[in-house]
Amino acid sequence: MSALLDIKNLNVQFDTDEGRIVAVENISLSVNAGEVLGVVGESGSGKSVTSLSAMRLIPSPPGIISGGEIIFHQNDGTATDLLKISEEEMRKFRGNDIAMIFQEPMTSLNPVFTCGDQVMEAIILHQKLNKKDAKDLTIKLFEEVQLPTPERIFSTYPHQISGGQKQRVMIAMAMSCQPSVLIADEPTTALDVTVQKTILQLMQNLQKEHDMGIMFITHDLGVIAELADKVVVMYKGNIVEQGNVWDIFTNPKHPYTCLLYTSDAAD
Q1: Phi/psi of residue 253, nearest 5 degrees
Q2: 210-240: buried (b, 16+ CB within 10 Å) or exposed (e) per residue?
Q3: Whole-model pTM?
Q4: In whole angstroms, what is the distance from residue 71 CA to residue 129 CA?
Q5: Average pLDDT along the chain
Q6: CB–CB of 40/232 below 8 Å?
Q7: Helix, coil or strand: residue 209
Q8: pLDDT tens readout for residues 196-219
Q9: H or E element, residue 20
Q10: Residue 102 in contact with residue 185, Cβ under 8 Å?
Q11: CA max distance for the chain
Q12: Given this model, what pLDDT does residue 158 score?
């Protein structure tokens, strides 16, 4: 499988009152076309810092990407180190080529605009469509993510719909420019188990249909087992184990992976 996103020897640090701390250290991983990479670890393991670095969304200060490369491979065969381009150039990649879904949709959706207007805005910004075409595409996306009565949802505000529906709006927004890589940072954590399962199934279907590469970040090994092809296990800012999902689950090598597995089974 061809690599879409290569993170090589990534180092991220944060300045704190207690001094500079290392958040991730020499992280290397790849997201391939048509594949789901699961990144698993407990809170503070560095998984979200890794994903935010890929989007160049680390707040600076206090964050500093102090080393490494984040290489995005485009369809025309060219490769770009996202850490070496300007913020203006990065905005062309962000949303268009690499999109992100966050854990809590209420913090990502603007409460003063309708759901439809927010997805439309992203489409107009990146695809330069007129308002009518952007609206038609938004409703089509709402249908694709299986929102009930897409025309009605288009005109509703985020607080008027359920958590699962808000997350579907976020997925529609992320999919609006047909990105090559989708980064999902614990997108189902705030949802109940039934809704979570539906959202995971939806993401699997979209991934297969569009041949995307997905980096799926979670602390839940059960989700990884259901969704991922490959797994990266992170602990205290380092990758302690990575490989094929079946191999990691049937024959974990690192004590931390074993600990995650047993604590997940106990839950």
Answers
A1: -100, -35
A2: eebbbbbbbbbbebbbebbbbbbbbbebbbb
A3: 0.88
A4: 29
A5: 88
A6: yes
A7: helix
A8: 788 788 888 888 888 889 999 988
A9: strand 19-32
A10: yes
A11: 55
A12: 92
